[in-house]
Amino acid sequence: MERLRATAVLAGCLLVLFLSLILPGPLLAENLHETPVAPLPDIHLSFGSGTPAPSQVAVTVELLLLLTVLSLAPAILVMMTSFTRIVVVLSFLRQAMGTAQVPPNQVLVGLSLFLTFFVMAPVWKTMDETAITPYLDKKIAPDVAVDRAMKPVRAFMLRQVRQKDLALFSRIARLPKTPAGPDDIPTYVLIPAFVVSELSTAFEMGFLIYLPFLILDMVVSSVLMSMGMMMLPPTVVSLPFKILLFVLVDGWSLVVGSLVKSFH
């Protein structure tokens, strides 16, 4: 009996669901016939047959160039400036201290950006004086402005790049001859050599930052083992001492000052 009742209830539910799906159709159609429908607005497209003025074409080209530069701005900022070295060294510092997400990523990236602006300020000032301002005043052509803007950036990268990295990418690129001077080095060879050099320098600085914190971890671990505290993690005990040591030696000023001075 119970099984029959359950079957009857299920059949009734299915019937109600089926009727609810079928019945609103005619009713909805009647409502649509009774309700007036607003007309759609007219859309007109027209194309001018006149020839655009040269000034309008120049503005259009400038807008396209501006959008292209904005789309490539993150890569330019990261790969052709001091940002890479700064953010990698600060990340090494946070890992060496063992503070997990303190400072958070937003703070590290923000500090790296403003330090990058500080380091690259002379380069950007030279670009503005020699390329951007004359181009906006319509004194030089776009190709001349690009060449002038690249010269201070190339000079900055050439000061920081390592000769062995530059020779490596020159050999990979199969340049026809050994460059006689800085102007003979193509930009597509200089940029990857500069990035690899920045990573190598950042890792060397990170190793030097790790050493004092590693020694402190070893001392704390030895003390805990001599006291028989095997179950207490040494990193938990050494973390306050790391922070205290970093504050006492004014660590942020030392690290940031060393980073900025490494570009001069």
What does this protein structure show overall?
This protein is mainly α. It is 76% helix and 0% strand. The radius of gyration is 33 Å and the shape is elongated.
Order of helices and strands: HHHHHHHHHH
Relative strand content: under 5%
Number of E strands = 0
By DSSP (H or I, 4+ residues per run), the number of helices equals: 10
Oligomer state equals single chain
Helix content: over 70%
The termini sit apart by: 93 Å
Classification by helices and strands: mainly alpha
Which characteristics define this entry?
264 residues, 0% strand, 10 helices, mainly alpha, single chain
Any chance you could write out the topology, listing elements then pairs?
Elements: H1 2-22, H2 24-34, H3 54-79, H4 83-97, H5 105-136, H6 142-160, H7 163-172, H8 187-226, H9 234-248, H10 251-261
Helix pairs in contact: 4-5, 4-8, 5-6, 6-8, 7-8, 8-9
Q: Would you kindly provide a brief summary of this structure?
A:
With 264 residues, the protein is mainly alpha-helical. Helix content is 76%, strand content 0%.
